Structures are given as C-alpha cells and as structure tokens.
Amino acid sequence: MEILSLPGEILHLILVQAALSRGLKRTLRLRLVCKTFDKAVYYPALFESRLLDHEHLRRRHCRGPVYTCNTNDHGVAKLWHDYLVYRAMGERDPHVGRFVEIRQLAQTIVDEAQRLEWDLRHVVDTLCWSALESGVKAPGDLYENWKREEATDLDKIQAFPRPEPRLSLLAAAALFDMVPLATVLLEEGHDPQHHNNLLPPAIQIAAQSGTDDMRRLLFSHPSCGSDFNPYSVYGAAVRGDIEIMKAVFPAPSEYDGGYNNGYGLIDWRHDASKAIPKARRVTLNPEIYEYLSNAWAPGPRSGRTPWYADLVSHAGRGNVGMVKYLLGRSVPVDEKNSEELESALERTCRCGQDDVVDLLLERGADPDFTGHALWGAVPIRMAASAGHMLIVRKLIDHGAKLVAHSGAGPGCGLGIDAMHWAFLLEHQEMITLLLERGATIRVGVSLATTLSHLGYESMLDIVRQQGFEAEPITYGLPIRWTEWPENKSLKAEWFRRKREEVM
Question: Using an 8 Å Cβ cutoff, are 361 and 327 in contact?
C-alpha cells in the first residue's frame, strides 16, 4: 500500500512523528516528493511538529537575517513567513514568544480600520512580512529570544526591552496607511524612529511603502528634525525612489569628495557609517547607489574596498542587475582582502544564485579564488556544502579543482572538501557527479566514522564499498558541529565510547 493512498489524517500523523524523530534537515527534503504532497501534506505536518520554533537561519549555509526585500532567497523567507502566520494565528500562550502579540496587534488594526474587506488573517499576513523584514532571523527568534518575562540578566533586558504595544501599533498604522490612528499615537508621545524588535520603526515603513500623507506626518515629528536617520534611508533605498531618498537624506550642494556630507565628520561610530553601506547593499536602483556613494565616500578598510563588499552582497542576494552595474563601474570580479570577506563567487555559490554564478564566470571569475588568504572557503566547497548541485557542475566545467583546499571556511572544517559535504548532505547525485569527474574519497576512515555517528547508513554503505570502515574511538571529520542539529548526540557519543574504551 502506497503511503500517499492512506487517509489524510493518518498520513498527517505519520509525517508529524517522522519529522520529530528524524529532524528538520531530513523533513525539509520531503517537500520534493510531489506538488500535491508539498502543498496538502508537507507544510501542515512540518508546522505542527514545531521544529521551526527552535531553528535559526544563522546556520552553516545561511548567515544573517531573512531578507524579504530586494533579494532572491529561493522561497526561504516564504517558508518562515507561512510558519510565522501559522504560529501567530494558533498560539494562545502569551508567554511563548510574541506570537500572541502579533495577533492582538492585527486585531487592533482590524477594529480601528472598520473595513469589512480587512479580515484578521490578511492583517496578520502583512504584519508577519514586516516582522521578517525588521531583521528577525527566523520564527525561532520569536520563541527563544523574546521571552522577556524570564529575562533576569541586565544586558539581555537592555538588548530586548519589554514590548510596547502602542509603539508597534504606530508602525502598523504606517504599514496600513492609517493616518488618523498614527496621529493619535504621535500625540501620545510615541517616537516614529523607535521600535521594540517586532516591526521596523514607523519612519522606515513610511519611507519604504507609505503614502505621501503618512510620510509628511511622520517626518514632521520633532524627533525627525535635521538629524541623520538610518531607518528612513534604508526604507527609501528598498523602495528605490530617488526623490524620497533625497527627501530623507539631503546631500550638500557642494560635495568635497571626502567624509563630510553635511552632517559633520563621519567616522565608524557615526550612524551613517553603517546605515549607508547597508542601504547601498539593498537598493536595486543604480541612481540611488550613486547618490549614496557621492554623499559619503568611505575609504578602504583594512585592504577591503567598500565597493567590492557591495558587489559581494548583491551577488549573494541574486541581484543580477546591480552586479552588472558594479562590474561596469570597474569593481573587480575577484579581489584579495585582509579581512574575512568572501569573494563574490564564494558568496554566490553559498547562496545558490545560478544566474549570478553564470555572470561572474563569464566576466572571468576564478573558480578556485578565495577572497581571504586564511579563509579557505573556495567556491566549489561552498556550493557543495549548501547542496547546490547545478552550481557544482558549472564550477567543474570551468576548471574548478576537486582536491581539498587548506584553511577553513564558514561551516567547514580543515581539509573538508566538496566530496565530504556531498556525503554529509546525503546528496547521492552530487557524489556520483564528483566521482565521475575524478574526485576521490579522502580520509575515508574519518568520513566513515562521522557517517556512522550521524546514522547515515546509505552514505556509509558507499564509503564501505570504497574500502573504508568506521573506527569507534575516532572522532571523525573536523567539522564545526555546533552549527549542526546532530551535534547534540555526536560528540557525547564519541566521549562515551572513549570512556568505555579506557575503562
């Protein structure tokens, strides 16, 4: 009897228990079975397992927040958004993250709007997108990091202040263009430049998506006087409207080509030193990029030019148009630097941006180039560690070496090459490709030991066919296991076996 022929309720229970027993990584692979399975079965089971409550996007292949604007993220943000909506609509315990707070905020908006076409789920849906854009890395952050009632450490309380529902309501009013409600909240004394880690500040939302009336209302607030406001600059950069950018960040009439842009001398401690590069890396409008670059022209930092850092960022986001623009601006396709900065091709391979990989290789990017002398995260290893089969094939076709490289990279151990990552990801097709192209299994005993610890029996069988067997007293490959879900049992099991061996 085929599993898909089972009654829906039984299949759902089986999948929930399978997710809980096998973990998130293998559960995510189930969505590839078929479209019906993906839409009707997979998501409900995954969400009910609550595995995503404890999962963060700051993993070995995905550092940084979920960017839901101006980037090609292959549907990652959509997955987190759908789960966040699921949790916000279903959670009843206000002490579990801030899911209830999101629903209550949405209910207030519905009540204030008094519009029949606005239902609660629609408002929750919109608020959850905004919550992800504010820098939340995953719904797990809502669950783990926002338990303020239990916070006793002073630093934690300062970093995560207690929720202010009316401040979040001001941001929501800006998001839904509710000028009368925003006016009332401003009169109550809420600052449009502040936020409480749930939604972006109202001033950013107004610059990014608000109407002229909302922008005029918020920008006329006394706190938004002549001081530089990083949130409004970021919002205008996302929107891509040069006139709004000029309004929120007026450049001086005479630009001297240095650090003085009318706001005084800008150094690394000034808000602009972080806000302007961030805005340059999120905008898709070359005119805005030029405007921000001319308004403030930072010099190289420790051997790294800011324009190359921008190229790396846009390449990782999959912004083909901006990558072409920056390369046309004479930004080098490969650049050595003395900081731990990935090359543009490394970042692109890690993030799986196929179109940008094609563009960079076409413009002469070295498939074996690594941006930092000690980094060691060459493109093919980054692509393999992220499971991007198509990109691995492209790099090999362009002459990428299959041998291990020295050094360590993000989520990579010393000497761990593309073949090792194919085994660790249980990627049968990639293993076959690498073997066909001449790769060999290095340090096979350590690899077999690691696969044995992880319980990857099908992968272990392949390694055994090559003549390697696991050794119980060997720890295995030097991976940064703290970033793996399997790390909870792997190292403990090794130490247990070693103690038994000694005793």
Answer: no
| Three-state DSSP class for residue 204 | helix
Question: Burial level of 255, CB count in 10 A (0-12/13-18/19+)?
Answer: middle
pTM: 0.82
Which residues, in sequence order, are bridge partners of residue 59? 62
157 in Cβ contact with 148 (< 8 Å): yes
Taking the C-alpha atoms of residue 265 and residue 418, their distance in angstroms, rounded to an integer, is 47
User: Where is mean pLDDT largest: 11-15, 87-91, 474-478?
Assistant: 87-91
**What's the chain's average pLDDT?**
77
Q: Do 312 and 344 touch, CB atoms closer than 8 A?
A: yes
Q: Using CA atoms, how far apart are residues 178 and 299, in angstroms rounded to an integer?
A: 42
Q: Exposed e or buried b for every residue in 143-158, given b needs 16+ CB within 10 A? A: bebbebeebeeeeeee
Within 10 angstroms of residue 136's Cβ, the number of other Cβ atoms is 25
In whole angstroms, how far apart are CA 420 and each of 25, 115, 381?
A: 17, 57, 9
Helix (H) or strand (E) holding 350: helix 344-351
pLDDT band at 211 (very low <50, low <70, confident <90, very high): confident
Is residue 325 within 8 A of residue 310, CB to CB? The reply is no
State residue 496's pLDDT score: 55
DSSP three-state, residue 75: coil
Question: How high is the pLDDT of residue 176?
Answer: 94
Q: Report CA 451 to chain centroid distance, whole Å.
A: 28
For 503, the token pair is: 């005793």
CA dist list (Å): 208 to 69, 177, 236, 279, 323: 10, 12, 5, 12, 23
pLDDT class of 75 with cuts at 50, 70, 90: confident
E strand or H helix at 168: helix 165-175
